[in-house]
Specification:
About 15% of the residues lie in helices and about 35% in strands. The protein is of the alpha+beta class.
Length: about 70
C-alpha cells in the first residue's frame, strides 16, 4: 500500500489561486480569502474537480443564469 499526500489546489476562471498554509484546512476561511481577490467567488459554486497527479483540485464555478424571473 502506498500513501500519497495530496496538495490542495483552488482554481477560479482557469487561474490557480494561492492557498496560505494557515487557511489550508478551513474551506470557509479560504473562500473568504479568495473572495478578497475575486469578489464573484462569494456567489460561485465550489466543485470538486478531482485528483490530478498529487493535487486535489477544487474549482469555483461562477453562477450562470438570468436575474429575476
Amino acid at each position: 500500500m502506498q500513501i500519497n499526500v495530496l496538495t490542495p489546489v483552488y482554481r477560479y476562471d482557469g487561474i490557480e489561486l494561492p492557498v496560505p498554509s494557515h487557511l489550508a484546512g478551513d474551506r470557509a476561511g479560504l473562500r473568504a480569502y479568495h473572495a478578497t481577490l475575486y469578489p464573484a467567488i462569494l456567489n460561485a459554486e465550489m466543485a470538486d474537480a478531482g485528483v490530478i497527479g498529487t493535487t486535489h483540485v477544487t474549482e469555483y464555478r461562477r453562477a450562470v443564469g438570468t436575474k429575476g424571473s
